[in-house]
Design goal:
By secondary structure, the protein is α+β, with helices and mostly antiparallel strands. The chain is built from four helices and four strands; from the N terminus they run αββαββαα. Strands 1-2 form a two-stranded antiparallel sheet. A two-stranded antiparallel sheet has the order 3-4. A hairpin with a 4-residue loop joins strand 1 and strand 2.
């Protein structure tokens, strides 16, 4: 009779670590695919004036060329808002480049709203889950997840 004892503790730890990295990689790519749909739609819906416009501050006036708001829309991975199993992307407009974005989205007492972020979400919300799942499935089926 032969008895064999093998300690796989270290191998198990390494496999768990590898699985965690693969999981994070796949989830983040899936979340980015979903974010891309929303980002593209928000940029498509962002209003663009025929010409530049001026906003008045307290003691200053600011000129913004046409298309500034659309060009300021961004998407970024949020490390602080992401956790194990959840990858969070933020899509918004850069408030320094287009500080008037809030007034466009929600309107003011003198100007009507021209929303673009909420309608982008409303149009894409039923498709983002499918986009994320599809991207994650593609990665897993192609074996890209193992190429960390």
């Amino acid at each position: 009779m032969i008895s064999l004892k093998v300690d796989l503790t270290e191998a198990t730890k390494n496999l768990d670590l590898f699985a965690k990295h693969v999981n994070a990689y796949v989830i983040r790519r899936g979340a980015q695919s979903a974010a891309q749909l929303f980002y593209d739609e928000a940029r498509r819906l962002a209003p663009v004036a025929d010409r530049g416009h001026v906003f008045y501050g307290r003691n200053q006036k600011y000129f913004f060329p046409a298309g500034t708001l659309k060009a300021s829309i961004y998407q970024v991975f949020s490390k602080d808002r992401s956790t194990d199993g959840i990858a969070t992307y933020q899509i918004s407009w850069n408030h320094k480049k287009a500080p008037y974005g809030f007034m466009v989205e929600y309107g003011t007492s003198r100007a009507p709203a021209h929303p673009f972020m909420r309608p982008a979400w409303d149009r894409m919300k039923d498709r983002v889950g499918e986009a994320a799942r599809g991207r994650m499935a593609d990665i897993l089926q192609s074996g890209q997840a193992g190429l960390l």
